[in-house]
Amino acid sequence: MDVDDEGMDPIEAEMRRVMGFARFRSTKNTKVPGNDKLYGVRKEKKTKYRQYMNRPGGFNRPLSPG
């Protein structure tokens, strides 16, 4: 679908064309150039549990680091 240029001044129409807003289309199921290097990997971090009850020194004391 093209953007209609009726009712716009020629400067605004030229600016839209230069900036790439001349056409609006979907990129669903299409390969976008330059998008092949932008990705992320989601790695699940293993949870480290720390004992805070039934430990030497009692219950109401700060947790040891690590």
What Rg is obtained from the alpha carbons, in whole angstroms? 29 Å
Order of helix and strand elements from N to C terminus: H
Q: Given the structure, what is the number of helices?
A: 1
Which stretches are poorly predicted, pLDDT < 50 over at least 5 residues?
Answer: none
Helix-residue proportion: 10-25%
Approximately how much beta-strand content do the residues carry? Answer: under 5%
Total beta strands: 0
Largest sheet, in brief, is: none
Domain U4/U6.U5 small nuclear ribonucleoprotein 27kDa protein: 12-65
GO cellular component, one term: precatalytic spliceosome
Main location: nucleus
Organism: Lineolata rhizophorae
Provide an overview of this structure:
It is built from one helix and no strands. The chain is an all-alpha fold and 66 residues long. It has a domain at 1-25. The relative contact order is 0.11.
Summarize the structure.
This protein is mostly helical. Helices cover 15% and strands 0% of the residues.
